Predict the 3D structure of the following.
Amino acid sequence: MTEIITGLKLSEGIGFGSIFISKRADIDISEREIDAAHINEEISAYKESIQQAHIQLRILRENVGEHLDEDSAAIFDAHIMMLDDPGFNEQIINNINSLNNAEKAIQLAGQVYITKFESLDSEYMKARALDVKDICMRLIANVQGTELTDLTRVDEPVVVVADELTPSASAQLDSKYVKGIITATGGVTSHSAIIARSLNIPAISGVPDILSKVNHGDDIIVDGFTGDIVLSPTEIEMAAYSEKSKAQDEREEKLKDFIGKETATLDGINISLYANIKGPEDINDVTSNDAEGVGLYRTEFLYMNRMNLPSEDEQFEAYKTVLSSTDDKPVIIRTLDIGGDKELSYLNLPKESNPFLGERSIRFLLKNEEIFKTQLRALVRASEHGNLKVMFPMVTTIDEFNRAKALLVEEKEKYEAEIGKELDNIAVGIMVETPSAAIISDQLAKHVDFFSIGSNDLIQYTMAADRLNDQVSDLYQPYHPSVLGLIKKVIDSGRNNNKWVGICGEMACDYKSIALLIGFGIDELSVNPKNILAIREHIAKIKKTDMEHLSEQVLLADSAEDVLYLIEEHLNLT
């Protein structure tokens, strides 16, 4: 009998196939007692497992880099870095000396990291616990001479179902045969999700009891657009989903007509349509989807998923790669934005009772100048290779901006003295993410070169509703008149001072809010690169003069519900 289960959408698409249940290889940790005289043999076995893991991971990295993209391949760079981490290795050697057992020693050392990652609030950092599990399982398997995964056996269309997929297992997925992925656990930042998106394999997670509901070999449908899983589908359901998949393919093909076209409204008003990226690995998506620039380079990803801070040279290479790959289009690089739900475990920062109101973003950087200066110097060096604009996150006062800019100017002048020439000016802007910044945006506009409204944070701070807290999710209201009033004020402040204003976050890619933002006079939208062409098509159907009339009305509305009604009425969605 057909049953529909709904989970968390990780990767879009529709997949059909028979169920392939993937169970992690059972690796029993030996309880054998080893004579102290043989400790050196255990240490040698561990060191050999490290060497073997290096070879295995480099092969995986090469294969993934060849068949997927650098974002997916970089997963294994992080694994290799952990293998080389002195602290991790020292802990395992110490454990071997005390436990007389290499397998137990690896397991114990790994558990310390796993517990630490799983205790963090950030979903991204929690997902890194699986990396540690994967690395430790590989090392233990190498010591034992056992295999880790069986996904290479797949040779027919299947939907892989598992409790969780390790990065190593995910790297063996072949889109020729794997038509869908369902896991009990794992979020959008998990490596299996990243690889699934790279392969265009629909993926769904967050179905804790999925293994108890399915049988190996049964038919199944995965709808990555809705998160629906159809167990034992009928022929009618199979036909319906097949039509849906075909229609989606045709839609994507039609959107290619917008490649090379300007982003403009029906009445000829141009809007800059930029892409959000995490690093060089996203450049292919930026170019293939014809983004007009990079509106938000989230540099925190350079600092995450690793055991230490990135060096100046490492940062320089990443920034240079992006800048030199974008044909002199604007590239807005945001300085390190940690805190709130983004943590760096290796910094051992004190726990805060309310991290979203604590030492995050620019506050952290101004209190940790050496970390900040290293990034600024890398940015200055990279500025020679493209059209760089620097953006400071979560600025709440003019003093914060002036102090941050002074450090940038200082590093620029030092570097110019070293190379004996003067560099071009670097445009410097801020993220407007707090009501305080929005309220004084007319004063801030006299100091900055541009604004980028961070809609997600601006909403949560304005409504005093943590966007990650289900208990107050009903108060997280993008269309509340108070939020819209602040956005309009920032746009007006920019316009009055001849400074352009952009926006990123969920509002930048929501069709209803895009119409409203155009009416407010927004200059730029920064979105996921894969949404660029669809948004360009949507904007081409909007008449700005009509939206200006709408913007006047919504600011007089009493509630978010009233605002939504007005938008839908104007867009003929009611």
Summary: The chain is about 50% helix and 15% strand. The longest strand covers residues 14-21. The domain at 36-144 is CATH 1.10.274.10 (Enzyme I; Chain A, domain 2).
